[in-house]
Amino acid sequence: MANNITDFSFGLWAWQTILLIVLGLWMYCLVDVLRHKFKNDSKTTWFLIVFFLPFLGALRYLFTGKNRRIKSVRNVI
């Protein structure tokens, strides 16, 4: 039987969805690392962890790295 373009594969759709979520999470974490300052000047370390370990590094950053950011106080006029 020939496969038509209209054939739908749930497994392929699920993998693509997971891949897009992981890619979006990775990009969010990279941008977040670059935009903030960290205690003990560990910005480079977090960037390398997230960059070279896309899924695990992003999860580790979300659970532990965001707590190590320096909270900046902005002047509101």
Can you give a write-up of this model?
- The chain has 77 residues and is mainly α.
- The chain has a domain at 25-68.
- It has 3 helices and no strands.
- The radius of gyration is 19 Å and the shape is elongated.
- The mean pLDDT is 84.
Q: How would you describe the oligomerization state of the chains in this entry? A: single chain
Number of strands: 0
Low-pLDDT residue spans: none
CA radius of gyration: 19 Å
* SSE string, helices as H and strands as E: HHH
Residue share in helix: 55-70%
β-strand amount? under 5%
Distance between the termini: 69 Å
* Number of H/I helices: 3
Report the principal-axis shape: elongated
Please state the average pLDDT score.
Answer: 84
Largest sheet: none
Structural class: mainly alpha
Characteristic terms for this protein:
77 residues; elongated; 3 helices; mainly alpha; single chain
Helices and strands, with pairings:
Layout lengths: L9 H26 L7 H10 L1 H12 L12
Nutshell version of this structure?
With 77 residues, the protein is mostly helical.
